[in-house]
Specification:
Elements (H helix, E strand, L loop, with lengths): L10 H12 L6 E5 L6 H13 L13 H7 L6 E4 L10 H11 L9 E5 L7 H12 L5 E7 L7 H4 L3 E4 L5 H10 L5 H7 L4 H9 L2 H16 L5 H12 L2 H18 L12 H8 L4 H18 L5 H9 L4
Parallel strand pairs: 1-4, 1-5, 2-3, 3-4
The chain binds zinc ion.
């Protein structure tokens, strides 16, 4: 694997782990959680490469020793990484069994064996159960790192056998500064749309997320004012902006409800378009807004099924006529 970077907002968590390691107090299993877009997957790799390195420092792996070279070539026998495989995107029981069989062996080159299970919530019940024994009776010199956006989706028996390591987003100013250094435009808005997760904001910036959202919002304002043709909007959204348009619409209607209830709500997601949303919310009563929100929520649930997207959007947009 490539040498993973340590993002500034993860420094403190790394220092804690390093301290635990130096004192011989590392847990045998960590559950690494936090918002999407904080760099959890990379952090697990960074920690692994550092702890496996034969010349470890506070900056992480040296990049030059034997384990570093083998790890870079994906041939270090003391490191294992599981990822969801196949169409169903699950971590299968045979993958976990194979991992557990490896973990019984003593380390071959490094001073320990490390296994990272990415997207750990994609283990099905059978896979999770087959991991339990290894978690309950870990072999010596073994470290397991389970990574997930959704710790509550893991079996309680798995969660309770891991030490929780929750990563938090950086303070707002720090995130803005970091995004500024990456030359991201609209960082303030992107951050508020990603709950403060800098890598999610960066990814959205690179994919033209704000521009696409602006185009869809212009359509939406047109609908609210009765100046847009619903069928044309629906067709355009389906062709170009599905399914993002549904998530945006849900977020706008939620903010409209907040604005309808309180004059200056403390928690708005769409801080850049408040005045338009506020004007829009004045045209509808609360009951109508809730009814429309419910339609969008249903559509979001159905959007991953085989149901016709155009029909879904037609249904969602119809009441805005
Ligand atoms: Zn090294």
């Amino acid at each position: 694997m490539d040498k993973p970077a340590l993002y500034p907002w993860l420094q403190a968590s790394w220092k804690n782990l390093l301290e635990q390691h130096k004192q011989g107090k590392l847990a045998h299993a960590y559950l690494l959680s936090g918002l999407p877009g904080l760099g959890k997957a990379g952090f697990a790799r960074f920690v692994s490469s550092a702890l496996l390195c034969l010349d470890l420092s506070e900056h992480g792996a040296c990049g030059h020793c034997k384990t570093c070279h083998l790890l870079a070539a994906d041939t270090l026998p003391d490191f294992y990484e599981l990822l969801p495989e196949g169409k169903s995107q699950t971590i299968r029981i045979d993958q976990v069994r194979k991992l557990c069989a490896h973990l019984i062996l003593t380390p071959q080159i490094a001073s320990m064996k490390i296994a990272v299970i990415q997207v750990a919530d994609s283990m099905n019940v059978a896979s999770a159960n087959s991991l339990l024994k290894t978690l309950e009776e870990p072999t010596a010199d073994t470290l397991l790192i389970l990574v997930t956006d959704f710790p509550n989706r893991l079996l309680p028996t798995i969660r309770s056998r891991c030490q929780q390591l929750h990563l938090n987003p950086p303070p707002h100013e720090e995130a803005l500064q970091w995004l500024g250094a990456q030359q991201v435009d609209g960082a303030e808005t992107l951050l508020s749309l990603t709950s403060g997760a800098p890598l999610a904001a960066l990814r959205d910036s690179e994919s033209g997320y704000l521009e696409r959202r602006t185009a869809v919002f212009a359509d939406f304002i047109g609908l609210i004012r009765g100046q847009a043709n619903i069928l044309a909007v629906s067709e355009s959204w389906q062709k170009t902006y599905f399914p993002d348009c549904l998530y945006w619409l849900r977020s706008w209607v939620e903010d409209m409800i907040r604005l309808k209830m309180v004059d200056e709500p403390p928690l708005l997601e769409n801080t850049d378009i408040v005045s338009d949303l506020k004007a829009g919310s004045k045209r509808l009563d609360l009951k109508a807004l809730y009814a429309r929100l419910s339609l969008v929520q249903t559509a979001i649930q159905q959007s991953s099924t085989t149901v016709n997207h155009q029909m879904l959007l037609d249904e969602v947009l119809y009441p805005w006529n």
